[in-house]
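User: Second chain of the day. Same drill as before.
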Amino acid sequence: MVLESIISPLKAQKAPIKMFFLGFLYSSIALFFSVWIFKEHSSLIMVFLTVLATVPFMYKTIRQEEENDLRIKSEHKLLKEHSKALTTLIFLFMGFVVALSLWYTILPPTFVENLFNVQIQTIHNINARITGNTITDFSLFMQLFSNNVKVLIFCIIFAFFYGAGAIFILTWNATVIAAAVGTFFRNNISIYAQQLGFLKIAGYFHIFSMSILRYMIHGIPEILAYFVGGLAGGIISVAVIRHDINNEKFRHILFDGLSLFLIAVLILVFAALTEMYITPLFF
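Assistant: Same format as last time:
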């Protein structure tokens, strides 16, 4: 197929910024096809079509990292190799978020409400759970951390049973973040327009970038952790298929997978603390 043949994991690791534009392309095409063909269910079909275009790249990446596990014995060097793959996936995810956020802000409101209706409802449900209770710092941290760990576990399970399945969870998160970014932008642009008028074009770009930044300060560590977990689950899944579980190679891969899981948990601790104490300093 055309979309899945654009770039290979090795080429992507040499120029990871290309994955940003690829993510932008994948999600934009998925958005317009979902509206054109499946308008009433476009909010979910958009996710499915984006995933469909991305799965081949994800699977090739997981296969490559599993081969690195067999080739590289040093855990330090192995993690360094994994970091190259993770960088490409982060750029891919950012392409999803920026593209969908941009379409959210420029498309007509009635059009957007239908296109992102499930995502908007998800955001309302999350806000209702948070604002409906009196929360101490520790309980807020535990709530944020436990929710993130649940997503991490889902990524690992999906990656283990479906190979590249973690990309479904991450693409869904990208659409939810895009809806949140777009809502933040629309709410603030009306205030800005009333104060300074519609001729200050630079101000609109500033608000859009701030809308992205509001969720990416803590969002990037979270997504990185999910990709780390998805990579771990995918590597172990491939190893189960290709090797005997009593094989020494399999035990080495399993150890690497467990190491990646622990790293993902530590990243989520950092992400929860960032969301609690750093993001509020700017917003």
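The chain is about 85% helix and 0% strand.

User: Great, on to the next one.
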